[in-house]
Design goal:
The complex is a heterodimer of chains A (about 170) and B (about 525). By secondary structure, chain A is an alpha+beta fold. Chain A has seven helices and five strands. Chain A has a five-stranded mixed β-sheet, with helices on one face. Chain A is elongated. The two termini of chain A are about 30 Å apart. Chain B is about 40% helix and about 15% strand. Chain B contains 21 helices and 16 strands. Chain B has a five-stranded mixed β-sheet, covered by helices on one side. Chain B has a five-stranded mixed β-sheet with strand order 13-12-16-14-15. Chain B has a four-stranded parallel β-sheet with strand order 8-7-6-9, sandwiched between helices. The chains are: A alpha+beta (about 170), B alpha/beta (about 525). At the A-B interface, α2, α4 and α5 of A face α1, α11, β8, β12 and β16 of B.
């Protein structure tokens, strides 16, 4: 199966963070693999992790902070229970992507880069999901969906388990 | 007891985005309740996305196709004899006879959608490893010259002759050397790298190994964007299998060559598709562009000689080695040799992959293959070569797909991605988006790109509301000159290309004062 389900995040602690860092610290240029592993495990990268990473990889905290904030994938606050990405690139624009993006923001009541107040949803923009012949495309909890209309998006939200579909 | 019927249901993420997983599950369940044995293979996609999910059944007459199949169609299909290949309203006949496929020259994509992507036997039975085996009987210089002779040029967009780059890395004295495959396919309208990695990952690994043998590299990375989780998973598994098979690691295929390969994942930065930014990212740094020289071929990853190639360039090499340079060079026109994997995307009726020789016209791709727009309205513009490529108007659809012809027309073939827009598009907004995207994704190292893109959005906003239009159009043109001439890399240097193409071909959408009300 190629659809990607997200595992439930583990609660962050310094010890758990240290263990994840150590598991990926070997090899050439390990910083990105370490950051990915932390986010995969905890759902986000706790800012307190920065000094732990710096120490383990013999980098300055500024170096780690610089990388952490350069890449849009990495988040330093916990994500919503359901994560939504909307493609805003040209192929999706050509198939109503702008209207879809507006609809999703209205429907979830949050803007791109935001998490809803009660922690129900995180919404992010993305530039291309590689589904350009079946545009417009979104992902919901990592599952790619093509040919999405505003009505189909509402239908997809309706299929979520009740505790995941409230904002 | 009859043997199980082999059924192919794509596991490609685009096919799954319209229900292929559900179709596979419905087929397994439906066959079970009917007491029929089936073997469901999750292949790559054939690249005909309007027919996805495309189900193929192996019959005595070969593979026959049905599509697009929805989960609800499955019981009816099974009852009408799907597993015996009988006719049905969703029948498409023998897969290979489908016109869209039959008219292509599939060299790089020969096995995509055909084989089980992670089966080493399937790969070898369909011609896999023939190129690598031949390369291992040759000297490094002979392999390089074969690639030079083939005329292959970089498929990532820039079109630099692949063999010439290989020659430079081969001649570099420092050790160790690296091969880095740049699979940060971030441009909208492109999905061929993704399909290859999901549908035929061993071909990419074979291409990387041939490159390693040719330039004397012992370590390599495939840098894949994080937006492609399925490609990452398939490539990771493929690398494990390749180690188990003795294709990677010590003594590749029993030779004296050793090569280690690792999959690296990006983190949402478009700029990491630029080769030096990608190298910084692999090193664990911010994806900031490096000034050139030094070129990566001499001082690349960790300051060592590094061959950076696009997945399609590398995946074309096994064919060049297996069939010979002349075979490959015989496809194409002018200095654009071989085949290109064109990608039809956006508002297109029959979107997907068209691998064919260079020289085909835009009109043939858009109309003969693509069938016009999905909305059945006239095409107003197509963007060729990604977000940094020009918007081409219908008057120019006679242009042949050829690197030099496109440059002469103020456009670029790039990686062959084509995004189609119908006549409801607001080209003023598209020009604005080109600059907005550059502002969002600029690495920030050089001022023309970092500041120019932001100023560009501001100037276009003024133009679009009719403020000092004539003066601001001059300013925009001047800004485009500055970004083109002064930027460190193609991000800032090419962002003016789509903007200028709108100025040239769709000026009425920018200067709305002179044509008030003429656009929707």
């Amino acid at each position: 199966m190629t659809t990607q389900g997200r595992a439930e995040p583990v609660e962050w602690s310094a010890d758990a963070g240290q263990a994840v860092i150590q598991s990926r610290a070997a090899g050439r240029g390990p910083l990105l693999p370490v950051l990915h592993a932390l986010q995969e495990t905890f759902g986000y990268i706790d800012p307190q992790t920065v000094s732990l990473i710096a120490k383990a990889l013999n980098l300055s905290r500024a170096d780690v902070h610089g990388v952490l904030t350069f890449y849009s994938d990495f988040r330093t606050t916990p994500p919503g229970r359901t994560q939504v990405q909307v493609c805003r690139a040209e192929a999706c624009q050509a198939m109503g992507g702008r209207d879809l993006a507006d609809h999703v923001r209205r429907r979830l009541g949050i803007g791109f880069g935001e998490t809803s107040h009660a922690g129900g949803f995180s919404l992010d923009q993305v530039f291309c999901l590689g589904n350009c012949a079946l545009a417009p495309a979104v992902t919901i909890d990592g599952r790619l969906v093509g040919r999405v209309t505003p009505a189909r998006f509402d239908g997809l939200l309706g299929q979520l388990a009740p505790e995941r579909s409230s904002s | 007891m009859t043997s199980p019927v082999r059924v192919y249901v794509p596991g490609d993420s685009a096919a799954c985005s319209v229900g292929a997983d559900l179709v596979a599950a419905a087929l397994a369940e439906g066959a079970r309740t009917r007491g029929r044995e089936v073997e469901i293979v999750r292949n790559g996609s054939r690249g005909m996305f309007w027919l996805e999910p495309l189900v193929e059944v192996v019959t005595a007459q070969g593979r026959v196709a049905y599509g697009p199949v929805q989960p609800d169609d499955v019981p009816g299909l099974l009852d009408s004899g799907l597993l015996d290949g009988t006719s049905h309203p969703l029948s498409l006949g023998p897969t290979e006879s489908i016109d869209y496929l039959a008219r292509q020259n599939r060299l790089t994509f020969a096995r995509v959608g055909v084989i089980d992507p992670l089966s080493p036997d399937d790969f070898e039975n369909h011609g896999g490893l023939a190129g690598l085996r031949r390369a291992l009987t040759m000297t490094a210089a002979e392999v390089v010259e074969e690639v030079v002779e083939s005329g292959l040029r970089g498929r990532g967009g820039a079109g630099f002759p692949t063999g010439i780059k290989w020659r430079t890395v081969l001649a570099a004295p420092a050790r160790p050397k690296f091969v880095c495959c740049n699979a940060d396919e971030g441009d909208s309208g492109t999905f061929a790298d993704r399909m290859l990695m999901e549908g035929d990952p061993f071909t990419l690994i074979e291409g990387i190994l041939i490159a390693a043998v040719a330039v004397g590299a012992t370590e390599g990375f495939v840098y894949i964007r994080s937006e492609y989780p399925a490609a990452v998973a398939t490539m990771r598994r493929a690398v494990e299998v390749a180690y188990e098979q003795g294709w990677l690691g010590q003594q590749v295929l029993g030779s004296n060559h050793s090569f280690d390969l690792e999959i690296r994942v990006g983190a949402g930065a478009y700029i990491c598709g630029e080769e030096t930014a990608m190298l910084e990212s692999i090193e664990g740094k911010r994806g900031m562009v490096r000034p050139k020289p030094p070129i990566p071929a001499l001082e690349g990853l960790f300051g060592l000689p590094t061959l950076v190639n696009n997945p399609l360039s590398l995946a074309s090499v096994p064919t060049v080695l297996a069939e010979g340079a002349a075979f490959y060079r015989d496809f194409g026109m002018g200095r654009s040799r071989g085949t290109q994997v064109f990608q039809l995307a956006g508002n297109i009726a029959r979107g997907g992959i068209v691998e064919t020789a260079f020289g085909i016209t835009l009109d043939q791709l858009l109309n003969d293959f693509g069938g016009g727009t999905a909305t059945a309205r006239p095409i107003r513009a197509v963007q060729v070569g990604g977000p940094l490529g020009a918007y081409v108007p219908p008057e120019s659809f006679g242009l042949p797909m050829d690197y030099e012809e496109f440059v002469a027309a103020g456009a670029m073939v790039g990686h062959g991605g084509i995004v189609v827009f119908d006549d409801t598009v607001d080209m003023g907004q598209q020009a604005r988006f080109a600059l907005e995207f550059c502002a969002e994704e600029s690495c920030g190292k050089c001022t023309p790109c970092r500041v120019g893109a932001v100023r560009g959005v501001e100037v276009i906003d003024k133009i679009l509301v009719g403020q000092d239009v004539a003066a601001n159009l001059v300013l925009l043109d001047d800004l485009c000159d500055l970004m083109t001439d002064g930027s460190l890399c193609a991000m800032g240097g090419l962002t003016p290309m789509p903007v200028r193409s709108v100025l040239k071909h769709f000026a009425e959408d920018l200067d709305r004062t002179s044509n008030a009300g003429s656009r929707p």
